[in-house]
Amino acid sequence: MEAVALEQAVTMVIGKAKETGIAIVGTHTGDGSSGAMGYWSRKIADAGLIGISMSSYPFGMVPPHGSHEPLFCTNPIAWGIPTEGDPIVLDMSSSGISYYGLVEAKTRGDQVADGLGYDKDGKETTDPAAIMEGAIRPFDQGVKGAGLALMVQIIGGALVGGDFLNESDHDGNVVIAIDPEAMIGMKRFLEETTKMTEAIRGAKKLEGVDEVLVPGERGDRIRSKILDHDEIEVEQNLLSSLIDFVAEG
């Protein structure tokens, strides 16, 4: 149901932004995951608008700076920027790893990288199961990531009626659309964003780096590969769990 509500919200925000120059639409009390926020920001960018999307849940996973008590969710934020080619899409969690990333690692039986989380006693650990019972550190392991988690919790949650700290299952999502035509004009804006993407791809590479990518470009390649082959790779352990879940249902 969450995806259905966001689909309607994105459609609404695109229409309103094209009429007024800027628009914001929120959803709350959803049921289930909103999915990758970059997907929604990209849809707005594909419509020729700047898209910003945020999502928050009342499921504590990320602590404030200086603490190991989980207060915020992983609270993702994504930007979608139109260019003359593919849009620039920056999709990031305010945490060092997404909750689904922990689920994947646990399902595979893998450890995660150092510095990503604490166990329930506040000790650093690489065990995804222990982190799921403890806390995920902010993406920068510092004050900026924790601050971003708070801001997304406020704008993507409190502003639209989402709850905080496991009071309920009431999540919150916000999508914002901005029409460049209302500011500098679409032609000039596309020229500038395209100039930036070309400069990034042509930037001098560090030793050992084969290619400098624009945000979202790696994901676009994965997406194209999936669409070309009509297949999605799934870890065997995850596939077995899904099969068992369906069988039990």
Describe this structure as you would to a colleague.
This protein has 249 residues and is of the alpha+beta class. The protein has a domain at 2-96 and 137-215: Malate/L-lactate/L-sulpholactate dehydrogenase, NADPH binding domain (Ribosomal Protein S8, Chain: A, domain 1). 40% of the residues lie in helices and 15% in strands. Helix 1 (2-20) runs parallel beside helix 2. It starts with a helix and ends with a helix.
* CATH topology grouping of the domain at 2-96 and 137-215: Ribosomal Protein S8, Chain: A, domain 1
Mind telling me which CATH architecture of the domain at 2-96 and 137-215 this is? Answer: 2-Layer Sandwich
Mean pLDDT: 90
Gap between N and C termini: 19 Å
Strand order of the largest sheet: 1-8-2-3-4
What portion of the residues fall into strands of 2 or more residues? 5-15%
Count of helical regions: 8
Low-confidence stretches: none
Q: Categorize the overall geometry.
A: globular
Helix content bin: 40-55%
Q: What would you report as the Rg, rounded to the nearest angstrom?
A: 19 Å
Task: For this entry, give a set of tags.
five-stranded antiparallel beta sheet; single chain; 8 strands; 249 residues; alpha+beta; globular; Ribosomal Protein S8, Chain: A, domain 1
Q: In terms of topology, how is this protein built?
A:
Layout: H1 2-20, E1 22-28, H2 37-46, E2 50-56, E3 77-81, E4 88-92, H3 99-108, E5 117-118, E6 124-125, H4 128-133, E7 135-136, H5 143-155, E8 172-178, H6 186-201, H7 217-229, H8 236-248
Antiparallel strand pairs: 1-8, 2-3, 2-8, 3-4, 5-6, 5-7
Helix pairs in contact: 1-2
